[in-house]
Design a protein that fits this description.
The chain is built from 6 helices and no strands. By secondary structure, it is an all-alpha fold. The protein starts with 7 loop residues before the first helix and ends in a 12-residue tail after the last helix.
């Protein structure tokens, strides 16, 4: 490992503070915050509108080559995503770690990436889909066993 590099688990752990910050914001402003995974039929349209707004800010910043605005838009999107998870009671840090595990299983033979012509990573022969339903069940969502987890 090179100096300054972090272990993969340390990189994932560095994100853990985002969930805490999003929850603090939601509680301070009287927004939804659930302790267990629950459907949120009352707020999904707002969450989509917020994410679209932040995504459009990213598109404009990226097209303009404005790295400061790109960084701000990415942080805002992350904040909205974690806030949405807070409303739904989804343990997003755990889900993210599981998706990371799954994504790393996309490596091909010899631990080499398999890429499409456009650079997108494709699934290798050892790919294992993320198993998200147990994470929701462990967090208290009673219907998780019947749901598709990818």
């Amino acid at each position: 490992m090179l100096d300054g590099e972090r272990e993969p688990t340390a990189r994932v752990a560095a994100v853990a503070g985002v969930a805490v910050m999003a929850r603090e914001f939601h509680e301070a402003f009287g927004l939804g915050a659930s302790d267990a995974p629950v459907p949120r039929p009352d707020s999904w349209r707002l969450r989509i509108a917020l994410l679209r707004e932040e995504f459009e800010e990213y598109v404009e910043a990226a097209a303009a080559g404005d790295l400061v605005a790109v960084a701000d838009a990415l942080a805002d999107m992350t904040y909205v995503i974690y806030g949405t998870a807070c409303e739904y009671g989804i343990p997003l840090d755990a889900v993210l770690a599981e998706v990371h595990r799954s994504n790393m299983s996309k490596l091909g033979p010899g631990g080499r990436p398999i890429l499409r012509a456009d650079g997108k990573v494709v699934k290798g022969p050892g790919f294992a889909a993320p198993d998200i339903a147990p994470l929701l069940r462990d967090a208290g969502h009673a219907d998780s066993s019947a749901e598709e987890s990818s």
